[in-house]
Each structure stands twice: as structure tokens, then as C-alpha cells.
Amino acid sequence: MDLDSERPRGRRGFAAMDPERRREIARKGGASVPSEKRSFAKDRDLAANAGRKGGSSSRGGGRLGARDL
Asked: What does the pLDDT look like over 18-29, one tens digit per residue?
């Protein structure tokens, strides 16, 4: 027996909020992070190396990388 089919699904999370409230949250963006802590935005090499490190440890779901082609 599937419980989802028995009760109607309501809107949850951001979908349940009014548009003005969503805009208010979106406007804040990255404002909670002080500029001195945004190291990737300031240093492209640091960001590239971190992405490469993360990508190499990721399993990738069986996708082929550019080097595998």
C-alpha cells in the first residue's frame, strides 16, 4: 500500500513561500560570508585545484571525463 497515493501532496519549502519572501532570501545570497573568507572568488588557481581534487575523488556516476575519450 502506497501512502503517497492516499493523501494529497502540498507545497513544501520554497514552493510554499510567497514570492516576496523567496526574493528576500535570494537577495541575501552570499552576504552571510565575509569577503575575507571568500577565497575561491579571489584566487582562481586555488578554486581550480580544489575542483580538480574533488573531481578526482568523486566517483562521477560512471561518466567519462575529457581525458577518457
From this structure: 999 999 988 887
DSSP track, 12-27: -GGGGS-HHHHHHHHH
Tens digits of residue pLDDT in 34-51: 777 778 778 899 889 988
Distances (CA, A) of 51 to 32, 44, 48, 65, 66: 23, 10, 5, 14, 15
Which residue has 586555488 as its cell numbers?
Answer: 46
Q: Which helix (H) or strand (E) holds 59?
A: none
29 with 36: CB under 8 angstroms?
Answer: no
